Amino acid sequence: MITSTQQRPLPAGVVGLSQIERGPRSERREATPSGTLIIGRDIQVKGQIESCQSLIVEGRVEASLAAETLHVLNDGRFKGSAEVERADIAGTFEGTLTVRGQLSIKANGRVSGRVRYARINIEAGGEIAGEVAVGAEAEDVAGAKGHVA
Questions:
Q1: CA 41 – CA 79 distance, rounded (Å)
Q2: Rounded to an integer, what distance in angstroms lies between the CA atom of residue 97 and that of residue 64?
Q3: Considering the domain boundaries, does residue 1 fall inside one?
Q4: Cβ neighbours of residue 145 under 8 Å, at least 6 residues apart?
Q5: Checking phi first, is residue 13 left (phi over 0); if not, alpha (psi -120 to 50) or beta?
Q6: Residue 10, domain member (yes or no)
Q7: Residue 132's closest CA among 145, 118, 149, 143?
Q8: What is 101-127 written as a DSSP string?
């Protein structure tokens, strides 16, 4: 049994964990896949993010991203460009977003800019604004980069 004063080692491939993830009741980090980068609540990152399977944003990110999945949590903000297979937005995304598969916008989620997706799910209260392309148009964009939707 691990008490609140003991620290477990980070799972392989995990760069950092937010304070939420470090809680003794959280078992979520054991399920965190290899290649996951978590930007914690009070962290700000700028630049280019490469070789990342999954990006989880609780803080602020201003970057270009190529990854399998993007999760922007409630208080998270992503500004820049992202090309992913799947995106779950509960916070704010501003910029260019290409989703080869499923884009999910949660009730508090806000997506604005140039948005391309194959499929979408928007919960009541979620918002999307800007230049939007759906289905075959999004697949054409992904296909031009060598991806299959």
A1: 15
A2: 10
A3: no
A4: 83
A5: left
A6: no
A7: 118
A8: EEEEE-TT-EEEEEEEEEEEEE-TT-E
Query: What are residue 87's DSSP bridge partners?
Result: 70, 103
Please state, as a whole number, how many other Cβ atoms lie within 10 Å of the Cβ of residue 77: 19
- Give Dmax (Cα) for the chain: 52
- Phi/psi region, residue 4 (left: phi>0; alpha: psi -120 to 50; beta: rest), is alpha
Mean pLDDT (the chain) is 81
Tell whether 99 is covered by a domain.
yes
Structural domain span for residue 78: 19-144
- Residue 14 is assigned to a structural domain of this protein: no
In this structure, are residues 84 and 65 in contact, taking their beta carbons and an 8 Å threshold? yes
Alpha helices (runs of H) in the chain, residue ranges in sequence order? 19-22, 136-144
What is the dihedral sign for C-alpha 13, 18, 23, 29? negative
pLDDT tens-place string over residues 58-106: 999 999 999 999 999 999 999 999 999 999 999 999 999 999 999 999 9
* 3-state percent breakdown (helix, strand, coil) of the chain, nearest 5: 10, 50, 40
